[in-house]
Amino acid sequence: MTYVYMVSAALFILSLKWMNSPATARRGVFAGEIGMLLAVVGTLIGGHIVEWQWIIAAFVLGSAIGIPIAYLMPMTAVPQRTAMSHACGALAAALVGTAEFYQKQGTGELTPVFMIPLVLETLLGYLTFTGSLMAMGKLQEVLPQRPITYRNQNAVNFVLFAIALALGIRLIMVPGDTLLFPIFAVLALLFGVLLIIPIGGADMPTVIALLNSYAGLSACAMGFALGNRLLIIAGALDGSSGLILSIIMCRAMNRSFTNVLFGAFGQIQTKQGAQEQRAYRSAGPEEAAAILEAASTVIIVPGYGLAVAQAQHKIRELFDTLTRRGIDVKFAIHPVAGRMPGHMNVLLAEADIPYDRLFEMDEINGEFPQCDVALVIGANDVTNPAARTDKTSPIYGMPILEVDKAHTVMVIKRSMSPGFAGIDNDLYYMEKTLMLFGDAKAFVSEIVKELPAKVNA
Length: 457
Ligand code: NAP
Fold this sequence. Notes:
alpha/beta; Rossmann fold; 7-stranded parallel beta sheet; 58% helix; globular; binds NADP nicotinamide-adenine-dinucleotide phosphate
């Protein structure tokens, strides 16, 4: 079994490495799946399992829930789905810890070496469970998006966490105190809720990455408690990758962890002065097609709206049409475009847009000043020049795609309404900007139709 676990651990590490690049991502997913299969089979044949009927019942129930979710949940709901799987993983770890605690009462096995990881596993497991459910509710909009705040909130949360931790330490020292355990578990569950309510909906994807990290650490601690090396490795990989992902997201938004967790970002902004109506220019598909046809370089900037509209295949048609015409077409990918890092890459890959046409923000920003047309499709915050110029803006300092430097900017979206961060975009009022109002898929389709026949030939 040790060898099976070693192969499985190697496959997990290779899986993470391969998932780093779109070209090897499929291989990475496959390696991860084989690794997990080996881990499960290795554990089952390793003789730890005594009650097969429970394993089969859990397998059937899990598959009955998981398979429809995999097929029915749209790409735009990936953050919620991820939150749900963290909630389930964390609850599983916490329940295993709880069962171990009660089963091993009186056996003399609840030594401090056993109890330290068990307390960590259950504390992180229970708080991640409720925290992930809250995050899921906010993203699904069944809970209020706005941060819920009150006076001394951070102090209250800190005290609550300190009490839970103190009870955990007491359990390590006096493991026979079985009445204390439920209080400890309830405090951890409550802390998960209170930790998330002051965080705005716009920060939930980052919070989910952080909760991913907690769930991984909880599984890692469970590995120590159960003496299972593969769980230790897999949990550590999960915990560290979640942490790295949340660091990447924070950097891409120029935010710190403390700001995300305790900053209550996304509260209703107090309006300064009367709201003025600002002028903007709009155009139809015919004019947009003519502008694209006259360009020699076009940079397409995809965003969340593209994912909502499922416009990726139409964009592929537009890409093919323009490329045939000899126009240089590139895609600019912001690290937090969409709702999770990599969201745009996956969508564009689904439509077989060549990977070598996709450019990261730092690679492409220098090209906007020479670019004839920047075509923004369903992206908003990641193009807002206020991030560079307006010190009062909540997104000030966030690195953006500098589309405002292109000769002409065209923006496909349905209205003038704001994006995820809930703020107006100065880009739309610039003289060089044309607003193309409509659903991304329908509008791109119209543009493709409008491009002259010789382009399509
Ligand atoms: P965004 O700022 O949310 O803007 C998306 C735009 O798409 C909206 O303004 C919306 O305008 C438009 N839209 C929606 N449905 C559409 C449709 N069917 N057709 C055409 N347009 C449509 O998205 P983004 O520019 O991709 O920025 C991502 C946001 O998520 C940022 O605020 C970022 O900080 C945040 N975020 C992302 C991550 C991550 O990891 N990716 C993590 C944390 C936070 P209309 O309603 O007018 O159509």
